[in-house]
Amino acid sequence: MKIFSIGTRYYCKTICGFALPQFEACLDEHLGMRKGSFAEQRTKQIFCDLFLYARDLRQEYTDYYAQEYDNFEQFLYQKELLNKPDIEELELTPDQTVLELRTDLCSYNVKTLMDYEESARKVINQVIEEIDL
Amino acid sequence: MKLRQDFVTNSSSTSFIVSIKEDWKEENFLTAIGIEGKSPMTEVFRQLFEAVDHNKCEIRMALEEYHSNCDSVRSFLQEAGFEEETILIVEKMLAEKRTVYYGKLSSDGSTAAEAYFCMESFLVCEDDIYFNGRVGGW
Question: Closest chain A residue to B30 measured between Cα atoms?
Fold first, then answer.
C-alpha cells in the first residue's frame, strides 16, 4: 500500500476491495498511541480524511468502463489521464487497485500536510506500508 | 531556514495555551498527548512539540512579548479571543503554581506539522496536559 502523487493529485495503490473500516482496524494495531488520546485521535483523523472519499478506480473501471477500454491500465491512461510511465511504474497486479484520494471533499488541511514537505508524505507512507493492505 | 519556491501567500497564525504537569520537555509532552510506542507518526507530533517549544513563552511574559496593553493574564486572554471557561482554567492552573505557556503557530512555519496544527482547532484537557488551540485566524 503506498500513496503517491501525480501532478497535484494524490493516489494510493492498494488491494482491490479496500474498505476504510478494515484499514482503521489495522491502523489501531500499528499506531503505538494511547487509546482515546489526542495523538491517536488526530492521527486517525488524518488517515480518515485521506481515504474517506477515495475513488476506487479499478472498481469504477469494472462497473462502467470495462467494455469501452481494453484493460484497467488503458482506462487509467485514456480516461484518468495518467501518464504511461507512471502507470508502468505502479506495476499493478490484477488484485490491486488505485484509489484517487479526494481530500478536498472533507479537509483541505490534510492536503496541506501532504503538500508542505516530502517528510510528511514519507511519514504517512511509512505508516501505511507497515499496514500493508 | 525554509525556502519556498511556489507562490508567496499571506500566512496566518493560531494562538495556543499549553501546560503540562511534568517538567517541560519533549518526552513528557509526547507522553501526555498519548505517544506510547514507536510509530512513524511520532515524528509529526515531535515536530508539533518543536513548534510549540520554539514559539511559546510563559504566559505572564506574553503580556510583554506581544506588546499588550493588558495588565493581567485575564484581560490578555480575553483580548486574544479565549472564552471565559478557558480563562478560568488558566487562572486555576496558575493558582496551583503550574507553568502555563502561551504562543502562536504559523501557517507558514518551518514544518508541515506546524502548518497543519495551525489550521486545526483542538483542545486537550486532561490531568497531565492542557493544550488549547481553539483560537485561530481561520
Answer: A39
- Cβ contact B100:B84 at 8 Å: no
> Number of helices and strands (H, E) in chain A?
7, 4
CB contact under 8 A, B33 and A39: yes
pTM over 0.80: yes
Q: Measured between beta carbons, which residues in chain A are less than 8 angstroms from residue B35?
A: 32-34, 39
Q: Which three cell numbers stand for residue A32?
A: 503505538
Which residues form the domain of A103?
Answer: 2-131
Number of domains in chain B: 1
Q: Are B51 and B110 in contact (CB under 8 A)?
A: yes
For residues A28, A128, A80, B116, the Cα torsion angle rounded to the nearest 10 degrees is 80
User: Mind listing the pLDDT tens digit for each residue in A24-74?
Assistant: 988 888 888 999 999 999 999 999 999 999 999 999 999 999 999 999 999
C-alpha cell of residue B93: 492552573
Cell of residue A74, nine digits: 488503458
Domain with B71, as residue range(s), is 13-133
Report how far apart, in Å, the C-alpha atoms of A68 and of each of A63, A84, A86, A96, B87 are.
11, 18, 22, 20, 63
The residue among A115, A123, A126, A132 with the most chain B CBs within 10 A of its CB, best to mutate, is: A123
Please tell me the distance from the alpha carbon of residue B60 to that of residue A71, in angstroms, as a whole number: 66
